[in-house]
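Continuing the batch. This is chain 6 of the set; chains 1 through 5 are on the previous pages. Same settings as before, nothing changed between runs. Recording input and output for traceability.
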Amino acid sequence: MRLAKLACDHNLSIGCRNLGVFYHQGSSRVRNYQKAIEPYVKGCSGGDMVACSNLGVMYQYGNGLTKDYQKAITLYEKACNCAYPQGCSNLGFMYEKGLGVKRSYAKAVPYYRIASDYGDPQGQYNLALLYYTGISLKVDVPKALSLFKKACESGYEPSCRNYRLIKGQ
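Output for chain 6:
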């Protein structure tokens, strides 16, 4: 944490992001959402798209600040537009669930595809679900299995469960 704070104090965006992650996602004894906000803002302003996306998550769920879907969407768009795949996946989720926007699977799919193409396991998982269920996409079980397997190979456990269930293992 000391190195991340020192790096952030010297305006290194990745240091700010790491400091934000430490407070945002750290163990319960160090988790402090309020302290995560400033380094995330500084990191995002400095061009770190992970910090932008993580700050979006905080707005989406109201971690340490008032829940604000519009701010989350803006941050996810910024991250996605700069090729950060988890930002794209998060943006797709907002459209799929209708959080701050009109619910639209048709708008969610392209964001999930981008995230999936860049190797984001959550994007692969969400896209696989749509292929498997036929929601907004033609049912394609082999494609769904392929995506579940890719996400599983990246360690995304929900995808592993679905892959095993579908394969009958």
